[in-house]
């Protein structure tokens, strides 16, 4: 008789409920990675999530941790206050690109520059997902959105912002990496990066930052399969994957 072997179990931190995200959206996968890391590190009971505005705000429906909802773009500022008030808690933000890289650009830059001991999980799908599919700071050249129907133009809107490289260049950043969710291999690497971003907080090294390249089939007007393919063919060539800063690696070499 063939024996069935369990290869996956639901993290206790992840609510056992159906997710409402659009078909092919990878927010659910990103939620799972965060939940697994919190569980494996044994910090779920003292974790505090700062939710942002956008599709990312729904994380409080699915992660069984204390959560604070921040005004649009202000999650790093709220996280700063929470961490300073509750230094023994594990504090992290979960934000989209419209939220973090646009209205919240000042907040993330100053938070990173100060070296606040928080973790930033940044989901980049190159578009405003919840509010109507508008152009975001990360929208690629030629990409069509509701506010640039002919495609983003370099002369008018400039190039897409590379947040991971910017954050890595700031003095208080302890860890900065960009990952993707388009393949099994990349998902595994993404989990390692999220894990590390929490570790540097626990080790009191500074700010941990993970940029996750993700799909938005609805606003890209693609099928889930086409959207997943776009990550590898269009997004990764412009937003290269990898670790852009790791102070613990530098310490090991020293």
Provide mean pLDDT, rounded: 94
The low-confidence runs, each spanning 5 or more residues with pLDDT under 50, are none
Kindly state the percentage of residues in helix.
25-40%
Strand order across the largest sheet: 2-1-3-4-6-5-7
Shape: globular
Please work out how many helical segments DSSP would assign: 10
Query: What is the level-2 CATH architecture name?
Result: 3-Layer(aba) Sandwich
The CATH topology corresponds to: Rossmann fold
Count of individual domains: 1
What would the keywords be for this entry?
seven-stranded mixed beta sheet, 7 strands, 39% helix, globular, alpha/beta, Rossmann fold, 10 helices, 254 residues
Helices and strands in order:
Blueprint lengths: L26 H15 L5 E5 L14 E4 L5 H11 L4 E7 H7 L1 H10 L4 E6 L29 H4 L5 H6 L4 E8 L3 H19 L4 E7 L3 H4 L3 H15 L3 E5 H7 L1
Parallel strand pairs: 1-2, 1-3, 3-4, 4-6, 5-6
Antiparallel strand pairs: 5-7
Helix pairs in contact: 1-7, 3-4
Folded structure, characterized:
The structure is a single chain. With 254 residues, the chain is of the alpha/beta class. It has a single domain (27-253), classed as Thiamin diphosphate (ThDP)-binding fold, Pyr/PP domains (Rossmann fold, 3-Layer(aba) Sandwich). 39% of the residues lie in helices and 17% in strands. The protein has helices at residues 27-41, 75-85, 97-103, 105-114, 154-157, 163-168, 184-202, 217-220, 224-238, 247-253, and strands at residues 47-51, 66-69, 90-96, 119-124, 173-180, 207-213, 242-246. Strands 2-1-3-4-6-5-7 form a 7-stranded mixed β-sheet, sandwiched between helices. Helix 1 (27-41) packs across helix 7 and helix 3 (97-103) crosses helix 4. It is globular and about 50 Å long. The model has no long low-confidence stretch (mean pLDDT 94).
